[in-house]
Design a protein that fits this description.
By secondary structure, the protein is of the alpha+beta class. It contains 16 helices and 15 strands. Helix 5 (199-206) runs parallel beside helix 9 (302-311) and helix 12 packs antiparallel against helix 13 (412-429).
């Protein structure tokens, strides 16, 4: 008898890459603006010295201080940026912008407006063209309209590798297609998870119990309802798409025409999204969006909001004016609101190596505390993508030339960064899209004593997902609002104008 050694089959695991931090042309690792500031300080000092040597005593210390706060960096931020952020926070707290207290008796309808970046937003109900309606968040300051799609995400662990690869490929094609839609400002994908409060199961079982059932059977069902929420989780997946009607090729001056155009675009985008590993795609109603915000600001009301959904009272009792908090305090490293305390992080560094399709699964899976993970995608137009990537390749070549002139050896990170820039340009040339991605994570607790545990859990999950998060010091409210389906993008808040 011949014995043959059996070797385990080699399983090829598909990996992906392409996350890269934007780097401009600059000296000392600075961008264009920082480099201009440094050169201008040096030139100003030399010009003053050429006029009168006595002026160098005045200009030299000032120029040295400017160069120092510009060049010295901490966690990717210059000392000038840190100082400016601290000064803005000090001025905001001095003016009382970080605190809100609402009374039971109000003098006007606007007294219950949402706080911070959500203040100029209003909730609209629009027709979908098929006999139904859906909710739209209208930013009156910018004119942007945000619609939200409710999705049921399918697990990649329960399908073959070829199927999950197809989903990722279709998602890439969906993002690339955003570059051909000029009205799409950005897309937010949010995974909202929390322990099940028990109201959903209670309402479901209570409506199906047989009154004539034996007492013991009814007791068993009551015990199951009482103990099940401890092991269950409430998970929602949402895709919020923010549109800029002013960028439309057609002139849309009327709000109704803008909503109709959004509905038309939303139909095609939802149809294409069905091929990306999600199912049961529905447009969120206006009262559902109000319920999401109410639950976020008042986590103790999650069971009450779900009960309104189950009983059909949501359209009557959930409104935008009452979705915000009755009081909140934005602190430097946390956000206190109604019955909850939240901490918000931003994506500080992406994985340096190639990753699999499940890289963010551990961060997004439900935990012991309510949590929202939001990925924000800002697409570049098809015309701007080539220019952006060409600038990145030129910046990498410039840094390489500076390194050679200084006689320094090339580091592994510089080599990998240059290779990624060239690869991205090649992929764009054959049809790939270009988006700017950011990530925000919010965790909420109802007991402040549990906050350190919740923070440690999120940071540990982020490490397991090979990403580095950084707490948004001084910007907790902006990050908190970015994880809600209200069309808020922190990077856009700094430059949005009035209309």
């Amino acid at each position: 008898m011949t014995v043959t050694e059996l070797k385990p089959a080699e399983i090829e695991v598909r990996s992906y890459g392409g996350w890269r931090r934007t780097r401009g042309i600059g000296l000392f690792g600075l961008g264009e603006v920082g480099t201009i500031v440094v050169i201008a300080s040096i030139v100003a000092t030399l010009a003053a010295a050429s006029i009168n040597l006595r002026l160098i005593v005045l200009f030299a210390p000032l120029a040295t201080a400017v160069v120092f706060v510009t060049v010295v960096r901490r966690d990717g931020e210059s000392l000038a940026e840190i100082t400016l952020r601290r000064a803005r926070w000090w001025w905001g707290t001095l003016c009382g912008y970080h605190r809100l207290r609402c009374g039971v008796v109000t003098e006007s309808v606007g007294a219950w407006d949402l706080p911070g970046p959500l203040a100029p937003t209003r909730l609209l109900s629009a027709e979908d063209g098929l006999g139904g309606r859906f909710g739209l968040v209208w930013d009156q300051r910018t004119g942007f309209l945000t619609a939200t799609l409710k999705c049921t995400a399918l697990s990649t662990w329960l399908v073959d590798g070829d199927q999950s690869d197809g989903w990722v490929s279709n998602w890439h094609a969906w993002l690339a297609g955003l570059g051909y839609e000029p009205t799409v400002a950005w897309v937010a994908v949010t995974v909202d998870s929390a322990p099940e409060p028990g109201s959903t199961l209670t309402d479901y079982v209570a409506g199906r119990l047989e009154p004539q059932a034996p007492e013991y059977a009814r007791w068993v069902m009551a015990e199951l309802v009482r103990t099940s929420p401890a092991a269950a989780a409430d998970v929602q997946t949402r895709v919020s798409i923010t549109f800029d009607p002013s960028a439309s090729p057609e002139r849309l001056d009327d709000l109704a025409d803008q909503a109709a155009d959004v509905s038309r675009l939303l139909t095609g985008m939802a149809s294409a999204l069905a091929e990306c590993g999600v199912g049961n795609i529905e447009r969120a109603q206006d009262w559902e969006l109000a319920g999401i915000l109410r639950t976020a600001f008042d986590p103790a009301a999650r069971g009450e909001v779900q009960h309104l959904h189950a009983t059909g009272l949501g359209p009557e009792l959930l409104s935008w004016n009452e979705a915000g908090p009755t009081g909140h305090v934005e602190e430097w490293r946390q956000y206190v609101h109604d019955t909850g305390v939240s901490v918000v992080w931003g994506w500080h560094e992406a994985p340096r190596q190639r990753v699999t399709s499940n890289v963010l699964a551990r961060l997004m899976t439900p935990g012991r505390f309510p949590k929202r993970v939001t990925l924000l995608y800002r697409p570049y137009s098809a015309a701007d993508s080539a220019d952006q990537l060409e600038r990145q390749v030129n910046a990498a070549a410039f840094r390489e030339a500076v390194r050679r002139a200084q006689g320094r050896d090339e580091t592994a990170r510089d080599q990998a960064d240059r290779a990624q820039a060239v690869q991205a340009a090649r992929e764009e040339a054959i049809g790939a899209g270009l988006v700017r991605i950011s990530c925000y994570v919010t965790v909420t607790v109802t007991d402040p004593a549990e906050l350190p545990t919740a923070v440690a859990e999120v940071e540990a999950r982020a490490g397991q997902s090979k990403i580095k998060l950084r707490r948004l010091a001084g910007s907790q409210l902006a990050g908190f609002c970015a994880t809600l389906p209200a069309g808020v993008h922190p990077a856009h808040l700094t430059k949005r104008g009035r209309r």
